[in-house]
Amino acid sequence: MRELFISEHLYQCICEMRQRRGLKTILDRGDESPLFVIQRGNLYNSKTLSNQVTDMIKKTNLEFLQFRENPVTAHTFRHAFAIMAVEQGNADLYHLVQTLGHENIQTTKIYLEKHMKRKNNVVLPLRIC
């Protein structure tokens, strides 16, 4: 089990959703019920969430999607979070590893190294007269 830090607004949204599903809205460390459930009360597994995110992103028809090699998935947002946290100075590597729940610092470094390679691959504009 992993401890999550969430905003007050997100907490309220989760409580409202849990209330609609007939679950407790007071969350504490001893509560072992799933945080998210589908309408029938079944566990909302990561594959279900990932499929829904991927489907929603595809439906947006955003232009940049046609240039991506891989689809945008829920896991893509983990990479985006890691990159933004470091670039904005909100996290050092150690705390980022802890936040992402990685057991090995090398996993977190992989997230960041891919981004740094793209960021450092700058092409200077070529002026042709």
UniProtKB/TrEMBL annotation:
InterPro entries: DNA_brk_join_enz, Integrase-like_cat_sf, Integrase_catalytic. The keyword Oxidoreductase does not apply. The keyword DNA-binding does not apply. Residues 1-124 form the Tyr recombinase domain. It comes from the Bacteria. GO terms for biological process: DNA integration; DNA recombination. Keywords: DNA recombination. It holds the Pfam family Phage_integrase. GO terms for molecular function: DNA binding. Gene3D superfamilies: Intergrase catalytic core. This is Tyr recombinase domain-containing protein. It comes from Bacillus cereus (strain VD014).
